[in-house]
Amino acid sequence: MHSRHIQSLLNFLLQHSPAVVLLGPRQAGKTTLALEVGAGRRSVYLDLENPDDRAKLTNPALYFADHEDELVILDEVQRAPELFQRLRGVIDQGRREGKANGRFLLLGSAAMDLMQQAGESLAGRISYLELGPFDALEVDEKDVEALWVRGGFPRSFLAESDGLSLTWRRDFIKTYLERDIPQLGPRIAAETLRRFWTMLAHNQAQVHNGANLARGLGVDAKTVAGYLDLMVDLLLVRRLPAWHGNPGKRMVKAPKVYVRDSGIAHALLGIRDKEELLGHPIVGHTWESFVIETLISVVPDGTEPYYYRTSNGTEVDLVLVLPGGKRWVVEVKRSSAPRLEKSFHSACADLEPERRFVVYPGEERYRLDEVTEAVSVRQLARELHGLTSY
Fold it and tell me: Are the C-beta atoms of residues 279 and 347 closer than 8 Å to each other?
């Protein structure tokens, strides 16, 4: 099993919270990680999509009482929202009896619904953690380019060939559209949602224009907003908000939007391998999305990510406001010999960041000027991850 860097944080949260929700898209490795954590203690695992496991919870109070000294792992828990009220009573009773923490590990793949359900019933009793596909810290340096091309879903990244990887990703997309999303309730034609998802892939790392997407799909802007909310909720798409902290500037306000897993974006665009990707117009934008998603996945809890752009074109790809308010700015370049542009310097003058970086495909770390470093995505990810303390 590939080591997941959030495993130590997950164990820490279980030691200090009665219940932990582990969020992540399907097939990202939540179940594998949960079973690995459960193997180190007394635990029981239930898959709430399995009718036999659901039947065990016909009387959840009795079941939880029978396993009160074990970690109960509930997979796809958003399928059983009625359990949250039951969990509240069990957790409160356990606290009174001295069984305060490490009682439940809840796995889910629909973030907004699950967080709302859990938040309403388990406020003050639950912690949240997100597990995405593999990121650049979880693979060898030599495999970062393959991670970018194939994406980080384990079965895609670890496939024996590019062809098998692409086949898996196409099947993943088909399954989400035809089975998983309809099970969550929204009645959207699979082909319409595929077109929308593909349009987002074509517009990787670009400012969101809902009106253009609506015209392309033949629907209204409100419908497009609903589609986007759904894909964000399923942790398949990210909205990166625009920086809004310079009231004296005319700022771009719309978010940037991108498909979070680069391999899924490439599959939607029909890109089969690295050679095709390097010759595709999307190459720079998909590299930018890959780098930004990697960095966001490793930042300390409480970090706020943005992009910066003014109406006159001054911009920087990523602004990280770290806990405590310090700002790091990151520009992403696909060039092996990156250069600083006037726009970057202007953005830094506006933002006054503590640290400045340019992420590029090389492995050597060096200064571009007195205050800006060129780094690899792994080097910067490692530095950000090292800021986490718990």
Answer: no
Residues 123, 212: one domain? no
From 82, 113, 130, give the residue that closes a domain: 130
The answer, yes or no, to whether residue 184 has pLDDT greater than 90, is no
| Domain presence at residue 308 | yes
- By DSSP bridging, strand 237-240 and strand 206-207 are unpaired
Task: Give the separation between CA 333 and CA 84, rounded to whole angstroms.
Answer: 45
d(CA 363, CA 284): 18
Buried b (16+ CB within 10 A) or exposed e, 232-246: bbbbbbbebebbeee
**DSSP-derived secondary structure for 13-74:** HHHH-SEEEEE--TTSSHHHHHHHHHTTSSEEEEETTSHHHHHTTSSHHHHHHHTTTSEEEE
- Total count of residues recorded for the chain: 390
Residues 117, 156 within the same domain: no
What pTM did the predictor assign? 0.92
Chain centroid, CA 381 distance in Å: 15
**Shortest CA distance to 353 belongs to which of 311, 312, 306?**
306
What's the domain range around 212? 136-385
pLDDT in tens, 291-342: 999 999 999 989 999 999 998 888 999 999 999 899 999 999 999 999 999 9
Looking at 102, 130, 158, which one is the last position of a domain? 130
Q: What tokens were used for 357?
A: 């970086």
390 located within any domain: no
Residue 241 lies in a domain: yes
